[in-house]
Amino acid sequence: MRNIIIVGIVTIAVIFAAGCMAPGATPDPIVGSWNADEPELFNDTAFTYIFNADGTGNAVETYEDPVVTTDVYNLTWKSTGNGTYEAAFAHQLILSEDEKVFTILGDGSGDQFTGDGFVGVWTKDTPEEFDGVLYEAKFVFYENTTGLFSWYYQDNATLESSYPLVWSVENGVYRYSYPDDVSIFTLGTDGILTETWDNTTYTYTRV
């Protein structure tokens, strides 16, 4: 039901904190760019992870014929030791100047949500249809930097499903993430990076 989240994640349990690397320090082995070994798992797009030394990064989807970058997603990551890592996606919100409408950067749908100031309830402007049933989508952002994304049956306004989230704002840019959308990465001695997400594994090779 939650088609708002990205595939491959398609992936932040929390907004991971990571300090800047000290001068002269050796970068973590995961730092760099990694291409998916089997693009067909991502609808035949080239899927690349970019891990920066400061704990941030991106996931990039590119069609190869013709070469077009379709989506770029922000992520954060942290090492959990023994060659394993946790990474997740921060979904960036594009707010109108009056903070009454937002879209989600990179989701490709163009869906708009309407509210009145960031903290509060935001309702998707148009209902979503799944298997002939109409649903309304709502975000709720609380002052304590938590929130919810929920689906409601349109015909009777009862709750169908709900997903907890966390949000942050930096330099006027709002982002949110889902606690359950964490990918686990393992860097093997053979140099292959393996991602486990939603009981599925993907492998990547350093670019």
Describe the structure.
It is a single chain. This protein is an all-beta fold and 207 residues long. It has a domain of 71 residues. It is built from no helices and 16 strands. It has a 16-stranded antiparallel beta sheet that branches. A hairpin with a 2-residue loop joins strand 12 and strand 13. The two termini are 34 Å apart. The relative contact order is 0.20.
- Unreliable runs, pLDDT <50, ≥5 residues? 1-21
Indicate the multimeric state: single chain
Whole-number radius of gyration? 18 Å
* Rough outline: globular
Report, as a whole number of angstroms, the end-to-end distance: 34 Å
Share in β-strands: over 45%
SSE order, one letter for each helix or strand:
EEEEEEEEEEEEEEEE
Separate helix tally: 0
Output the structural class: mainly beta
User: What percent of the residues sit in helical stretches (DSSP H or I)?
Assistant: under 10%
How does the major sheet shape up? 16 strands, antiparallel
Tally of DSSP β-strands: 16
Mean pLDDT: 84
Sum up the structure in keywords:
mainly beta; single chain; 207 residues
Could you write a compact summary of the structure shown?
With 207 residues, this protein is mostly beta strands. The chain is 0% helix and 55% strand.
Write the layout of secondary structure elements.
Blueprint: E1 32-36, E2 46-51, E3 56-64, E4 67-81, E5 84-95, E6 101-104, E7 113-114, E8 120-124, E9 128-130, E10 133-141, E11 146-153, E12 159-170, E13 173-177, E14 182-187, E15 193-197, E16 200-206
Antiparallel strand pairs: 1-2, 1-16, 2-3, 3-4, 4-5, 5-6, 5-13, 5-14, 6-7, 7-8, 8-10, 9-10, 10-11, 11-12, 12-13, 14-15, 15-16
